[in-house]
Amino acid sequence: MLATAAASSREILTRLQEVMAARTPAQAKLNAVVTIIGEALHSEVCSIYLLREGALELFATRGLREEAVHVTRLALGEGLVGRIAQDLSVLNLDEAAAHPDFAYKPETGEEFFHSFAGVPIVRRERAIGVLCVQHAEPRAYPDIEIEALQTVAMVVAELIAGAGLVDEATARSPTFRDTGPLRLAGQKLVEGMAAGEAVFHQPRVTVEFTVAEDTEAERARVYSAFRKMREGIDRMTRDAEFGAGGEHQEVLETYKMFAYDEGWSRRINEAIDSGLTAEAAIERVQQRTRSRMREIDDPLLKERMHDLEDLSNRLLRIVSGQLGTAAQLGLKRDTILIARNLGPAELLEYDRRRLKGVVLEEGSLTAHVTIVARAMGVPVLGRVRDVRRLINEGDRLLLDLPEGAVYVRPTPAIEEAFCSKLALSQRRRAELAQLRGLPPVTKDGRRVGLMVNAGLLDDVAALDATGADGIGLFRTEFQFLVAAELPRRESQQRLYRSVLEAAGDRPVVFRTVDIGGDKALPYLDHEVVEDNPAMGWRALRLALERDGLLKGQARALIEASAGRVLRVMFPMISEPWEFDQARAIIEAQRAWVHEHKRTGPTEVHYGAMLEVPALAETLDLILPKLQFLSIGTNDLTQFLFAADRSHPKLAERYDWLSPAILRFLARVVRECRAANVPVGVCGEMGGRTVEAMALIGLGVERLSITPAAVAPVRAMIRSLDAAACAEEVAKLLASPPPDMRGALTRWGEANGVALG
Ligand code: PEP
Ligand code: MG
Residue 124, SS3? Predict the structure, then answer.
């Protein structure tokens, strides 16, 4: 019987470490391990099964027949051993044969043994084998012995990995299938193709050394990590940004509760007492929590357990000194980034030269992270289920957006096919780029304004690369998103001036800051915690209230456009008075500059964004005040359908080509034309060929789109008969078919429209 004292467990670990350090073949090491454990537990049988080529193979045993070694194999899920590995569960049975999963293997001679206890050998959260003991007499194993087995299994995992007994791929994957190539499908968020190495946004720490040399030193490391972690959490909780009450507060309070949980730190301490290193002790306790979590049915409690998992990773990263996101650690090779989700600012932290693509477990087409990635030219595949479990850090990945898939660990044949497809798409892109100089005029002579959306100075280069008419939407908040603090007026002005200079005589439409929603700034105090930030304190609402913000930006815009035309528009206008106020703030700055004998803009053209449906009902009141109207279909459609634009489950539910949206847009365009106010679309919708065709059919005069879409949309425009399209769209809208997208696509194809 294993003694209850930690000292005894330490003794086993010390003996195991001697085995690990010995210069003997791996098989001899495993044989020694089963002997040590068997002796310590006074058990007749101790065996180790390892995952090899998709099956659990008996690698070493003390007590079963020698002939069975490397002969007895169990599939994942087969028998007790297979069940343990598949479910990452522990089995503790006084009568093994009575268990429904029991599979008798005659070559082992195990019929003499009644009781059975087994634990998974885990590496990187996956089972790579099973460690089990058996006794002749029927007995249930006390918790303390199961605990000891689990601790020993951690050390055995290190031994196995170190001895190269399982290849790295097997060590990283739960099943044989997952070591081989995989194809994971997702939602196309940003088009493109890319190859690279999988890097996790939040790197996971792999515990390399499990047995402590100096227990007290390990304890000190854990204490200091706990202190740092708690300080960090206290800081976050104190941070005014979160205000009082609400969801954030609750999450943080839970964090805090766990961070200070004496039970948690005590268990880690006990694990250290048993001879583990600080990292191994944290991991060991976390394994135990994970296995409890698997048995819990309560979703609320499970959610809380995720918090603990998060916290445990944080502690592990502090103790091992591996802090920060992958962006902060720096990308070393061509990278495909893996994350559950990302904020736009987090994405912007990455080195653009190395970041080749992104795979997200969540994500949606019009979330701002997607828009930023599109602006960066980084393909994004979203809504890939279980991606963080199925892909391993360092895996080779091929991101194929045209197919809406990512190839994981591709075979040479897949790699070859991918390369030729990539070459083909590059050729096609080069061909399209040659159209750059040709005007976007329809076959029947309608000139469509084709502009690009931008947000950073680098994006301005897209003007030359695409031959676009100008910048139809400059998202000024991007500068705020990449900064660590509110950008000063001077730096705003510098950016605007550089953009205008780079654009030359091509127009640039600046949109005043659209902060809030999914573009929250950590350094800006939001005062209240919002349940619905997209419908909350954002954009012009926030800017008007903090008039220092809009005032500063107004001055920066006025000064930057000295001697030129300033084009400015306001986001999220819901009622005309908001426009009036915003315009008054710009005009006041213009007057100030004038009074102080400084050069201001030659003219100011004011525009409004139509994103809130309510504004459509008061167009007659606002249009006379406008030089242009720009429809932001990203927000507009989320409000029309009452469907959160960044909600992963709603990402594909409603189509931009639905009759509701098209009819709504048709009405707005009609009113604008009647009022003689130019109308454009600057949402993501306009960057897709079929949608762009429909918009032109509705009478939209200008599209402002992501740079990568300019070439295909230009080709589409040049192949389109706008009058015929208008006729078809009117017909379809009068009596909409069930599949509007299908009907429009078929019409386009039948009429020779280049839909790509
Ligand atoms: C929109 O809402 O369509 C838009 C262009 O603005 P943003 O995507 O920045 O919210
Ligand atoms: Mg918007």
Answer: coil
Q: Which two tokens stand for residue 29?
A: 């090491």
Out of 114, 135, 201, 368, pick the active-site residue. Answer: 368
Q: Is the pTM of this model over 0.85?
A: no
Q: Contact, 562 vs 601, CB < 8 A?
A: yes
Ordered by start, the domain boundaries in the chain are: 5-171, 434-750
H helices present in 195-343, as ranges: 215-238, 246-259, 262-273, 278-295, 299-319, 326-329
From CA 516, how far away is CA 536, in angstroms rounded? Answer: 8
Query: What is the C-alpha separation between 12 and 147, in angstroms, rounded?
Result: 13
pLDDT tens per residue, range 537-555: 788 888 888 768 899 999 9
- Say if residue 15's pLDDT is above 60: yes
Who contacts 319 (Cβ-Cβ below 8 Å, separation ≥6)?
221, 222, 225, 278, 279, 282
Report the CATH fold assignment for 5-171: Beta-Lactamase (3.30.450)
Most ligand 1 atoms within 8 A of CB, residue of 189, 364, 366 to mutate: 366
Pairing type for strands 55-62 and 405-408 reads unpaired
Kindly indicate whether the domain formed by 434-750 is annotated with CATH number 3.40.50.720. Answer: no
- Give, in degrees to the nearest 5, the angle at Cα 370 between 366 and 376: 135
Q: Give catalytic status of residue 46 as yes or no.
A: no
Contact 665, 640 (CB under 8 A): no
